[in-house]
Amino acid sequence: MNLIKSQKLNIGDKIATISPSWGIAGEPDVRWRYDLAVKRMEDIFGLECVAAPNSMRGEKFLSESAEARAEDLMWAFSQTDIKGIIANIGGNDSIRLFPYIDYDIIRNNPKVFIGYSDIMNVHLMCLKAGLSTFYGTNLLTSFGEPQGVPQSTISHFEKSLFDTKPIGIIDSPYSFCCDPHDYKNKSAIYTYHSCGKYERLQGHGVVRGQLLGGHTGIMEIDLISLLAPFEENDNIILFIEDIVEYTSPNAFADFFVWLGKRGIMRNIKGLIIGRFNKYPENDDYKDALLRTMKVLDFTDLPVFYNLPFGHTAPICILPYGVMAEIDCDNGSFSILESGVA
Fold this sequence. Notes:
Layout: E1 14-18, H1 31-45, E2 48-51, H2 59-64, H3 66-78, E3 82-87, H4 103-108, E4 112-115, H5 120-129, E5 134-135, H6 139-143, H7 151-161, E6 168-169, E7 175-176, E8 193-194, E9 199-202, E10 206-215, H8 224-232, E11 236-241, H9 249-261, E12 268-274, H10 283-295, E13 303-307, E14 318-319, E15 323-327, E16 332-335
Parallel strand pairs: 1-2, 1-3, 3-4, 4-5, 10-11, 11-12, 12-13
Antiparallel strand pairs: 5-14, 6-16, 7-8, 9-13, 10-15, 15-16
Helix pairs in contact: 5-8, 9-10
């Protein structure tokens, strides 16, 4: 699978902010959070944020108009002075953009696109166009928290989007937060808990493959063309994360059964699981995963658990399609390429 890499970001670049899934960024009592995140993007990274034309029109308008959300995405890719695109937030409705996507616009105007959660569907649309994008920070959740931005999140953003050197080993943070976001509370203070290194659940030796993934909602997609990268690539390092509100341990196990039925499990060389948004940790997810690997006869598949991506903070950034490595002997996960050109 050969994908186009976008050009790296530079200080002074303009990046578009879009709302492809949920329009809460434009609500009057949440706008302060958007403004705070925009200021931090400028102060920390030297980036100028430009709101896409429809992105701040609020929840009702954007809920009713998937076409307007898709227009913003196409606008952001087509503007020559825009060098990158970041999703304001996730949600649960980005799949409705699919009929309105012009893949030639994406293919002919490659640029950084980043976001996580429901933004996965937009990443898969970009994959269909042949573009490598970034499963990582959303604007409001990662850069709009009143108490600040974790240094690890900042470092991963810089290393992944501004640097053409290989990203390298992904380390665990010293602490993490999984509190729910209070988008309207300007005084919200969240609790961080100490944590150890991500853990090897099974597997031996060293495996390499191309990064693909998202969250378990992949199995709800009935658009065959969006699943093609998973079904046609036999050299995958799969990354998966999700939240406890929507995915029970049994549903988590069912996801891997579904992968097996689709023939995708046999394409996976290694598996990394992002930290769930639950403290104390619920070991039922881990146990369900290991039981399912045994049932599917994949007990030799390298599996790492509790990596810093998804609905947690701080988070790393995972570029789609780049080569990555799981080293079971040394307990390390590395991204072997740069994310940008």
